[in-house]
Every structure is written in structure tokens, then in C-alpha cells.
Specification:
The chain is mostly helical. The protein is built from 14 helices and no strands. The two termini are 44 Å apart. 38% of the residues are buried.
Length: 224
């Protein structure tokens, strides 16, 4: 990798107007965790040729280094450059806004994603934003729409189950946890869900069922 860097250094010294050379060097620098140098090269590459690849890599590096405001700055440019990936780009934008605690802006981004292409992930993430803003009806609607879109989507079932648990709708929470457990393929997820379902059972006064879930969670993952 270092020999490739040396070769690229020489190539850039000869032809400093080739954006691909800067982009290639930035990719290597990123792998070597030399983030600032990689970003500097990407800035140069973008100045010479504003490609989607360079914009995306720079945004990813800003995100990795927790510079969320910088990471989010050029997403609209990326959407224009790669409109076929608008749904995923807007989800990433929304996630960055959430990292910045800018929930209303995150909702706008997830809504744009849903307009580009409906997905369970966008519904789930927007639903959580609505929960944060105490807009319970909107949150519930999003989780339900996500489930309708993909009945095998255990993430929206789980989000809705947690919503029901938080809003003291324990029977409905249990019903959704049943679905999550049935759909889960990973043991640690089942353990986690059983522990959560146990809370709902306990609040309903079904202590025997609650204890059964707690014991099963312990068997599956002794960290519980």
C-alpha cells in the first residue's frame, strides 16, 4: 500500500490535474486511517471533477470522524448526481440529522426517501423521529406502514412493539413481540425480545409467563 502511495505521489507531481489520481490516493489514505490527508485529496479531486464517488467517500470520512455537519452538507449534490440512489441517500441524510439531534430535518429527509422509493427502514426511522417529538399517532402509522410494506420486516414489528410497551398497550406489545421472535434468526435478538416481552407480561399481571420469558432469555444469553 505504501509503495502504491509513492507511485501516486510521483504521478501527481507529474500530472496534478488528474482527479482520478487524487481519488485513488485518497482511498489508500482512508484505508491507512489518514483521514485528514484523504479528505484533502478528495477536496482536490472534487475541484477538478465533482464526481459522485468523490463526494460520497468524503461524506463517509466526515461521518466516520464524527463531523456530521460536514458529512451532510453535500447530500443534495449527491442526489442530483446519482438520482437512482436517492432513497438510500436520503436515509443516510436523515440518520446524520438524527446524530445532530435535528429531528424535524431528519423527518424531511426520511419523507424524501419514501417519496423516492418506499422502504421499511425509512418508515421505521421516521417513526422513531415522530416518537421523539411525542407525535404518537404519526409514529404508529409509520411502523404499521412499514409492516404492511414488508410483513417479514421484524425491525418495524420490534419498533412498534417497543412503542406499545412505552405507551402501556401491553397486549398489543406482546402480540408484536410474538412476531419479532417468530421472525428473528439470531439467538441474541430472541433473548433481547424475550426480556422485553417479559416486561409486558409482568405489567399485565401474567407473572408466570413473564418468568418463563426471563428464564428463556437467560438460557439464550447469560448476560441477561
Amino acid at each position: 500500500m505504501h509503495s502504491a502511495l509513492n507511485d501516486l505521489d510521483k504521478a501527481i507531481s507529474i500530472n496534478g490535474k488528474d482527479s482520478e489520481l487524487y481519488l485513488c490516493r485518497a482511498e489508500i489514505l482512508a484505508k491507512l486511517a489518514k483521514t485528514d490527508l484523504a479528505i484533502s485529496d478528495l477536496n482536490q479531486a472534487i475541484a477538478l471533477n465533482p464526481s459522485a464517488k468523490a463526494y460520497f467517500l468524503r461524506s463517509s470520512l466526515y461521518e466516520e470522524s464524527k463531523q456530521f455537519a460536514k458529512a451532510i452538507k453535500y447530500f443534495e449534490v449527491l442526489v442530483r448526481l446519482v438520482p437512482r440512489k436517492a432513497d438510500g441517500l436520503y436515509i443516510s441524510q436523515g440518520d446524520l440529522y438524527r446524530a445532530l439531534s435535528k429531528t424535524p430535518q431528519a423527518i424531511v429527509a426520511y419523507t424524501a426517501s419514501l417519496k423516492a422509493k418506499p422502504s421499511g427502514r425509512a418508515y421505521k426511522n421516521r417513526g422513531r423521529c415522530y416518537e421523539e417529538l411525542k407525535q404518537d399517532d404519526a409514529a404508529l402509522k409509520d411502523y404499521t406502514e412499514g409492516i404492511k410494506l414488508g410483513p417479514g420486516d421484524n425491525l418495524n414489528y420490534h419498533a412498534r412493539a417497543m412503542f406499545f410497551l412505552a405507551t402501556k398497550q401491553y397486549l398489543r406489545a406482546v402480540q408484536d413481540f410474538d412476531q419479532v421472535i417468530a421472525l428473528n434468526k439470531r439467538i441474541e435478538n430472541e433473548a433481547f425480545c424475550r426480556r422485553e416481552r417479559a416486561q409486558a407480561y409482568a405489567r399485565m399481571g401474567k407473572l408466570e409467563l413473564a418468568e418463563q420469558d426471563r428464564k428463556k432469555a437467560q438460557e439464550l444469553d447469560d448476560s441477561f
